[in-house]
Design a protein that fits this description.
single chain, Glucose Oxidase, domain 1, eight-stranded mixed sheet, TIM Barrel, about 575 residues, 3 domains
Length: about 575
Amino acid sequence: MSFLSGIAASSGIAIAKAYRLVEPDLSFSKTNVDNADKEIGRFQTALSRAKQELEEIRDRAKSELGADKAAIFEAHLLVLSDPELVSPIEDQIKTEKVNAEFALNNTADMFITMFEQMDNEYMKERAADIRDVTKRVLSHLLGVQIVNLSMISEETIIVAEDLTPSDTAQLNRKYVKAFTTNIGGRTSHSAIMARSMEIPAVVGTKTATAEIKNGDVIIVDGLKGEVHINPSQEVIEQYLQEQKRYEQQKAEWAKLVNERTVSVDGLHVELAANIGTPKDLEGVINNGGEAVGLYRTEFLYMGRNELPSEEEQFESYKAVLEGMNGKPVVVRTLDIGGDKELPYLDLPKEMNPFLGFRAIRLCLEEQGIFRTQLRALLRASSFGNLKIMFPMIATLDEFRAAKSLLEEEKQKLMGEGIAVSDKIELGIMVEIPSTAVLADQFAKEVDFFSIGTNDLIQYTMAADRMNQRVSYLYQPYSPSILRLVKMVIDAAHKEGKWAGMCGEMAGDETAIPLLLGLGLDEFSMSATSILKARSQILRLSKKEMEDLAEKALQMSTTSQVVELVKAATEKNLLTV
């Protein structure tokens, strides 16, 4: 038995066989063929099998993930049916009497090179589509199985270098029991998706793909951040007991699903959930969410070939508002950029996209896109308790400009006789240090703040949260971060406004006592973290946490803050 240590990204314990997500070997040699017609027939068979495979993937994606997620597979099917691609392959087989693999690869390379040299970013992305579909056809020609996560039909644990959002979107929770990756952190997309899917995950192991073979029995301990490879029966039995204890603990938390989140001394705080699509509402309701604190609308725009229409957006926003039955829903306007790209937008490549043309900066320039989203939101507002927040706000001028566009669209809709709520709160995400420092001025104009700690921490510490080599600087308990959070909360309260938090810190059991003490009004987190957080807060005294937070603010280092909270835990002040 061997053992790997990583980052506990999603709680829980899973025991299953490993499914290594690695690129298949699709190497081949150029050969001459005697019978060109037979070789064309072999190519056509591979083409048909690839189409059938894509149709199955598309249908499954459509039923389980929605039409938007299935759109990419529709595009791939169109590529495989395009005579501009297929005919040259068959012509080369016939005229040059070469094998189908060579003709396919040669023709595909020609188109890929052509598309990649175009100035239009959308057309450049078509090269990726051609590369993807020809790889699928090539796999059938070579008789090599290509990885398809959505088609997994037995209990497995995914082992990969990393998982993209599209990878995780294909995972079937019935069969995929956990995953472990070489890279990543608690705030990476794969980690956030794992928590929303309620499957254990350990990321950042560095060597999982090198040390784990396909079919190895592995244990993923998402509580401690450990992965055990081919464990002994004794270790398996120990983990089965640990798994049972964790499930019992979850059953105890589940009893709190309809409880209000109130401290020992009577303070109510709101526990909300972060969601990406209307399908996530089930998890919010099942976990006793008192609100949606962050609706990441960018997922409506991703995994497709064109912008979502106003009507499509309206239906999605309406579904969430109605599904929450009058409870607050905070919708973040489009936050694209950084590590989230839209291939159909012709945006310039940037040296540092996290600090570049993204979020509100993009929306204020691409006003057509922004106004469409604002209209959809305003139309949906009469179906529930809508709150709108703008991301990546750095200056008051940006907030005022965004608010002005919203008001313009509101007046247009009302002029058209369309109902719009007159109770929409308008807020901003605080994720840039300059905004936190100027929170007292912002608080005079906004209705609320939502602190986005994932970005606030990386910008404050000047450390890319996706970079493994500087991951040690991602320090949510740093006194510098706590002081910024306090500035924002105090500024909001001084103006009679509320302050929430939608970064991963909001659901962190070490951070929760400190945030309660700092006066945070709303904690928004992965839905699966809500009941555990509620259980913790029900045992805390607001007054005692104020004293704890005041001491933490005077500390010099993160480790001192952690030790302070740990000592309080040992004194039974913070029993979870």
